[in-house]
Amino acid sequence: MSGKFCTAINCIDGRAQIPVIEYMKTRFGADYVDCITAPGANLATCSGKAGDIFKAIQISVEKHNSAAIAVAGHHDCAANPKPKDAQTAHTEKAVKAVKSAHPQAEVIGLWVDENWKVSEVA
Predict the structure, then answer these.
(1) Is the Cα dihedral 39, 41, 43, 47 positive or negative?
(2) pLDDT of res. 122
(3) Which of 4, 39, 51, 81 is 20 to 30 A distant from 11 in Cα terms?
(4) Could you give the CA distance from residue 78 to residue 108 in angstroms, rounded to a whole number?
């Protein structure tokens, strides 16, 4: 298999998909971004009920050699309607959980704002 992979754990909201994919490709020099989606993915990943998310991360890391993983939260999330500061806390907790499971990977947290611009928060 050729090409460099990274992994994005993102909300199902289609508005957040392309900005996160583009950010990840640029940030990590990746050719491909494995997308793991769930409603309110940052909250879902830190909830302790994220078995399928962690199973998907494992596949991405083992089969695609993904060395970088991001957990994203976004403005106007239907499944996690909290303000940015609360969502950032969820993202930080999720980053710690993912990093604990995959200490060899670079794990970052992302925020997608009301203009669909991406910034790192963790």
Answers:
(1) positive
(2) 79
(3) 4
(4) 22
- What the block records as the tokens of 1 is 């298999």
Taking the chain, what is the end-to-end CA distance rounded to the nearest angstrom?
31
Name the token pair of 50.
């994220």
Report the DSSP pairing between strands 106-112 and 118-120: antiparallel
Please give, one letter per residue, the 3-state secondary structure of the chain. CCCCEEEEEECCCHHHHHHHHHHHHHHHCCCEEEEEECCCHHHHHHCCCCHHHHHHHHHHHHHHCCCEEEEEEECCCCCCCCCHHHHHHHHHHHHHHHHHHCCCCEEEEEEECCCCCEEECC
Spatial separation of the C-alpha atoms in residues 19 and 96, rounded to whole Å = 23
Task: Report which residue type is found at 61.
Answer: V
pLDDT < 70: residue spans in the chain: 1-2
Please tell me the predicted confidence (pLDDT) of residue 77: 97
